[in-house]
Prior knowledge:
The chain is of the alpha+beta class. The protein is 44% helix and 23% strand.
Amino acid sequence: MTSPMPETTSAFLTALPVAQRQALEHLRQVIIAAAPNAEEYVGYGIPAFRQDGALVSFGAAKAHCAFYVQSPAVMEAYATELAGLDTSKGTVRFAPERPLPDELVIRLVQARLAENAARKAKKR
């Protein structure tokens, strides 16, 4: 039997091992600081933020934590800063004991905010 999907960020974090919980709680606070007007919610079973559309989210797997940037364009634009990290098209994976630098997270969140705002302005 599988456990039910968490309905809140707190429920998601509480279910994690201590090291992952602490790393992701810190990541969450950095995201909130970078995007104070973003709405926090749980989507597809993981904590997420939206402002002018989906912004970023985060999660955990057995051996790592993940920061979902949700934008291949932003990942490409920051490829130099992301070099050496475990990345894929829109994700940065990291070990709880080696969290992502706050400054990098802030820049990625701000880039996503700008991307969403530009997309919204274009639709007008």
